Amino acid sequence: MERFGITAQLQHVPPLDPEFFPLLRFNQAFLEGAKKPVGIAVERAGGQMAVCETFIHGTPDMADADRYYIHRLVKTLLWMKGGFRIYVSGDEGIFQSLKAAYSPGGERDFDRDFMAGVFEHPFEVLWADTLPAAKDAPLPMGGHLKGCRIGFDAGGSDRKVSAVVDGETVYSEEVVWFPKTNADPDYHYDGIVAALKSAASHMPRVDAVGVSSAGVFINNRTMRASLFLQVPKDLYDAKVKDIYLRAVKDTFGDIPVAVINDGDVSALAGAMSLGENSVLGIAMGTSEAAGYVDAQGRVTGWLNELAFVPVDVQPDAMADEWSGDIGCGVKYFSQDGVIKLAPRAGIQLDEAASPAEKLKAVQALMEQGSEAAAKVYESIGVYLGHTLAFYYDLYACRHVLLLGRVMSGKGGDLILDTAKRVLAEEYPGIADKLLPSLPDERFRRVGQSMAAASLAEA
Fold first, then answer.
1. pTM of the model
2. Which of 56, 383, 424, 443 has the greatest number of CB atoms lying within 10 Å of its CB?
3. Residues 315, 318, 320, CA angle at the centre, nearest 5°?
4. What percent of the chain has pLDDT over 70?
5. What pLDDT, on a 0 to 100 scale, did the predictor assign at position 407?
């Protein structure tokens, strides 16, 4: 593998994507000859700061490699932890290139605009003679099972709610709804309230409510969420940002409530089922969703949007239609990854079919013993093995729980087995510390909505 004069040798290459160049391997090879210090800090809400002190080469012949390395590093920090302000120290050229990239109309204009909207603050790239100090504010969350609680899980096609009394689920229901196609936020509000009232009718009182939902949440507010995709911006600001807080208060008054990303709730449910902390949950479905519970069992408040964290250095990697960037996780660890690889294996998919139907077609072939389908899942397993080593470099997590439709059936088993082999043979120092697994029956019994019920301390 070679890019920008940086080379690395791989023992395991995806059979259907031989040009795949793992970002971690690129970074490791790049840093071998890098001597000039450069500092990056990314600021997010509440003065929290992600800080990385690293090195570049700082010579004209390595300028492209330097720029690429730093730009991928900054993008990783932004989508892993979130932020609206970047501080740069150590190299004026790197500072100017980042400032240009994150300006209106620049190469990373999508990222700039997204983060500015999430944090409700203009996006900035600033020079710093001295970097700010690192600061995190993780919150103990989950595991609170005493009392009468409601857990609400807002999905794209159905909503689930559970009534939980002293850790026992006394009632649960699943109702089909259509939030992504409805532009009226009152539709969403009414559905949420109906679910809360339904659960409450099976308990003597309600002590706390926890909400699990796809999206980005800050201080229990809905900053970005695909469930409200069709809601106009003025109505979004007026009725969606506080929709869960408003629904709970209007229904039960001032009781404790917690609203967090469904990926974090999945990680929390995994921690509850394992009886251990330091869990990274990765759901491979429509996209790549992720959540993280740290070594102390806390939710970090990071974005954990690994779908938009780069994983592949090759210049011809597939672009994500939403962000416009290439080589990011969404095209490797979702149904898009399966659909991308299937034609390379000689599998003809119905172009008129939906992405979910295309995934089911490949899954059916896999269940029938198709060698072509096996190549698809083996390739994803190689992607995953290399990328789990990268995620360990970011999170230092002990457990990785692999969820989602892509991980179901024989295909999921092959992905996991292949990833474990890649880890063991390419990254033995990490393979001894990282335990990837599929959810067990105990996890399924805990469930997303029950884990959500445990979020708030009453």
1. 0.91
2. 383
3. 120
4. 98
5. 93
